[in-house]
Amino acid sequence: MSPMTTQAWRHNLLLAHSAAARLYKQEYQGQQKGLIGIALWFKWYEPIDSTSISHVAAAQRAQDFYFGWFMDPLSFGDYPESMKTLVGPRLPSFTSTQAAELRSSWDFVGLNAVSAMYAEDTSSVYQDTELGYFQDVRANVTDYDLDGVAIGEGITEFSVPWCIMRIVAYMRERYSNPPMYLTQTGWGIPLAPDMGENLNDTARVQYFHSYYATLSEAIRDGGDVRGIFAWSLIDGFELFQGLGNHIQTFSLWMLHNFVLHNVYNVFLAG
């Protein structure tokens, strides 16, 4: 996919959301009293070296390019300044009417907040003539710090409870604390060969306990979080892992001797 195509489809996605919201508000909201939201993926990016100005700036660029690409137009009617500077004329623009409609196109935001990664500056790697998403953001994201230590517990996905505190605080400070729902929080773990090991799911018990404890603290600090959805109550068929990534708190599909069984995970025992 070319850089121009990437900018265009995201731009059109925002305009499509705005058009659908406008139609609902004009034709249905008065009678139905419904609310309009949008769910966005929000992975927190922590500077790989918090004492380095360049890495701190890279982490902010990562937030801008991964999350702010959508949230800034919805909140402010325009793309983040870092994107406008680095992408330049390849980045589409909004008319004043489109900007106003985007700002009024939602009543709450859903956040798929699962984990965090480190971000490091790569400004010296790319030339200004190189075009592409990773060239534009000038930041590399990684699960490991400069000493090779993982950002949290896990294998392919990492448990990072403190990321919830960072995410809610960021929403409160940058976007004026809008009504928020955590529409996805969970931990994908590769399935073990033994069914009993999968059902004795103490790691996920600890994951949710630590994440919800951190979320409670973020709410006490003033974050307007109104609900949370676990990922996932039942089996999830993932794009790349299929059913091989263990994410559910209640399993419907465990296969034993080619017979499907309904089985509970220990998570539901409380």
TrEMBL record:
Pfam families with a match to the protein in the record: Glyco_hydro_1
Task: Give the signal sequence positions.
Answer: none
InterPro entries named in the record: GH, Glyco_hydro_1
Please, which domain of life does this record's source organism belong to? Eukaryota
- Kindly list the GO molecular function terms attached to this UniProt entry: beta-glucosidase activity
Per the record, the GO terms for biological process are: carbohydrate metabolic process
Q: Which family does it belong to?
A: Belongs to the glycosyl hydrolase 1 family.
Q: What is this protein called?
A: Beta-glucosidase
Q: Which organism is it from?
A: Adiantum capillus-veneris (Maidenhair fern)
